[in-house]
């Protein structure tokens, strides 16, 4: 396996970066009146404006060469045909199949038409969702269900939670959906306080049905149910599961027909499109869930078929590599100007950092470049009064994705126009900045003395030339939200392909889990801890002292 630094285009990009160092984005706009038009592309209800990047035609052409040389054409083919591209776990990577089942008849993987399994599961979900909303599903005392609590963590929690929140305007009124993830008892305790055990159904989402946090919370929910009038025999009326471990779910007390399957070809952080998305389907209805899948499928088809020069995930992925590896950008920010999308950066953070936070090439050799950046962000305009200061004047380069709908679900007063104006002004300010001369003039115009001008003006200088993408859509709908998340999934894959890493395993999280069990055992016993490091010993002692 080659290191990305061995690619011919990598070296060309390094040279080209030197040329681009002296060129300001502002001048690229001045030199080419058609720049915005040229650097705008569309797919699946989204428009990407990537004109405000430190890139000219040569940059983009080299980046296209880079993805080609890195073998993206083949890795895309591999993904869509079910090849075992997750090489360390010897698995296919088929979240794309979860959203293809309505548009495509078959996708044969290892001798099985996986789309048939997907369709059967969707039918099972349809039935469950309909029974809950129609009132046909009754709790153990004969009452209809008013609340569903999804218990899971990681990919079995965050994606569905973020999408359910993004689709708030589409939520059904009759059933409230809640999410619990943390092993911190405050999470589930706070939720249970609001609930009536007679009218609550718990959906336990765990691919393995072996995750500590999820099982602890599931057991707490079961204990609460049993101690509030429920019986062992009625557990099946109040608990369902999404898992590939049917045996364990049955042992918990679930009825087989209320266990929704998962497959090893769906990675946790890519699983919201499977039955892991059941809480979303309950919250917004099955029709909207199908639209979500369809939006994602449209983005899949764009990614699979569009020329790289017009391909949103490819352009965004390659530009990301340009900044990470050739401009030393350590982080990448996502700033949605949409209240309902405010938690999206956290989902993309999980998606991208669990996928590309890797230091080994596919063959196990160490990678010689930086890989996945720190993904972060939050809602605009709130962030403008917090971390945007660093974006504009800090010493670090932070490429930003601005994400905004053209129309609001809540068009009151001038709110949406103000919101949109702020979104545009941020990307503009990042690019154009403010020169010393402008700062001085501004101060003089405001009546400052010569001394004041000299003292204050340097602090007002904003260097500018900071890159951003802007993603626009008409409105946040199930389809456009689906397409947006699929766009980021594929962007992550594009970057993983360029670096030559496996974006679909997550071995790094295992050590912490093993040590967590070991330390838990030490906290609840009189074990000899002298072999541990002094810091951990002292911290264990502090905990034990507090419990005594
Ligand atoms: O669905 P499960 O098996 O409970 O796993 C939860 C999460 O834990 C992880 O394995 C990482 O700890 C994620 O990849 C996964 O989404």
Automatic annotation (TrEMBL):
Catalytic residues identified in the record: 354 (proton donor), 385, 513
Taxonomic path: Bacteria, Pseudomonadati, Pseudomonadota, Gammaproteobacteria, Oceanospirillales
Main location: cytoplasm
CDD domains: SIS_PGI_1, SIS_PGI_2
GO MF entry, a single one: glucose-6-phosphate isomerase activity
Cleaved signal peptide residues: none
UniProt keyword list: Cytoplasm, Gluconeogenesis, Glycolysis, Isomerase
Catalytic activity entry: alpha-D-glucose 6-phosphate = beta-D-fructose 6-phosphate
RNA-binding is among the record's keywords: no
Broad class of enzyme this protein falls into: isomerase
Protein name: Glucose-6-phosphate isomerase
Location(s) in or outside the cell: Cytoplasm
EC number: 5.3.1.9
Record-linked HAMAP family: G6P_isomerase
Pathway linked to the protein: Carbohydrate degradation; glycolysis; D-glyceraldehyde 3-phosphate and glycerone phosphate from D-glucose: step 2/4; Carbohydrate biosynthesis; gluconeogenesis
Function: Catalyzes the reversible isomerization of glucose-6-phosphate to fructose-6-phosphate.
Family classification: Belongs to the GPI family.
Keyword Metal-binding: no
């Amino acid at each position: 396996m080659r290191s990305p630094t061995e690619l011919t285009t990598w070296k060309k990009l390094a040279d080209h970066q030197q040329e681009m160092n002296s060129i300001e984005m502002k001048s690229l706009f001045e030199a080419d009146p058609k720049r915005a038009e040229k650097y705008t592309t569309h797919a699946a209800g989204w428009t990407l404006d990537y004109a405000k990047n430190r890139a000219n035609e040569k940059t983009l052409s080299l980046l296209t060469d880079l993805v080609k040389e890195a073998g993206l054409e083949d890795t895309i083919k591999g993904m869509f045909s079910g090849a075992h591209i997750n090489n360390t776990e010897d698995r296919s990577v088929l979240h794309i199949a979860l959203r293809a089942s309505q548009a495509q008849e078959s996708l044969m993987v290892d001798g099985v038409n996986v789309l048939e399994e997907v369709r059967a599961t969707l039918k099972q979900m349809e039935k469950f969702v309909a029974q809950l909303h129609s009132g046909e599903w009754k709790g153990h005392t004969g009452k209809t269900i008013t609340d569903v609590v999804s218990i899971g963590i990681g990919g079995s929690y965050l994606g569905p939670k973020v999408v359910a929140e993004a689709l708030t305007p589409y939520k059904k009124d009759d059933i409230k959906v809640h999410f619990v993830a943390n092993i911190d008892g405050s999470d589930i305790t706070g939720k249970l306080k609001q609930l009536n055990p007679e009218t609550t159904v718990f959906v336990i989402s765990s691919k393995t049905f072996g995750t500590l946090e999820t099982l602890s919370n599931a057991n707490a929910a079961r204990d609460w149910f049993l101690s509030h009038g429920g019986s062992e025999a009625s557990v099946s009326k109040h608990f369902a599961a999404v898992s590939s471990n049917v045996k364990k779910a049955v042992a918990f007390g679930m009825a087989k027909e209320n266990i929704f399957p998962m497959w090893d070809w769906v990675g946790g952080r890519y699983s919201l499109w499977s039955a892991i998305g059941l809480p979303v389907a309950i919250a917004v209805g099955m029709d909207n869930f199908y639209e979500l899948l369809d939006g994602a499928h449209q983005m899949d088809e764009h990614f699979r078929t569009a020329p790289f020069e017009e391909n949103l995930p490819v352009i965004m992925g390659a530009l990301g590599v340009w900044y990470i590896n050739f401009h030393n950008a350590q982080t990448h920010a996502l700033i949605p100007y949409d209240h309902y999308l405010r938690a999206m950066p956290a989902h993309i953070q999980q998606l991208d950092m669990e996928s590309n936070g890797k230091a080994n090439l596919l063959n196990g050799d160490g990678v010689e470049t930086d890989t996945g950046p720190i993904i972060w962000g939050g809602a605009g305009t709130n962030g403008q009064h917090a971390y945007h200061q660093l974006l504009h004047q800090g010493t670090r380069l932070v490429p930003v994705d601005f994400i905004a709908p053209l129309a609001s679900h809540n068009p009151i007063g001038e709110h949406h126009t103000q919101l949109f104006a702020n979104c545009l002004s941020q990307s503009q300010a990042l690019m154009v900045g403010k020169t010393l001369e402008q700062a001085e003039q501004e101060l003089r115009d405001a009546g400052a003395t010569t001394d004041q001008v000299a003292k204050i003006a340097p602090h007002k200088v904003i260097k500018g030339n900071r890159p951003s993408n802007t993603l626009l859509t008409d409105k946040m709908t199930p389809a456009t939200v689906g397409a947006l998340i699929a766009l980021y999934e594929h962007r992550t894959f594009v970057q993983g392909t360029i670096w030559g890493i496996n974006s679909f395993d997550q071995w790094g999280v295992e050590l912490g889990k093993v040590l967590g069990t070991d330390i838990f055992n030490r906290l609840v016993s009189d074990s000899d801890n002298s072999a541990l490091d002094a810091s951990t010993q002292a911290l264990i002692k502090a905990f034990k002292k507090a419990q005594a």
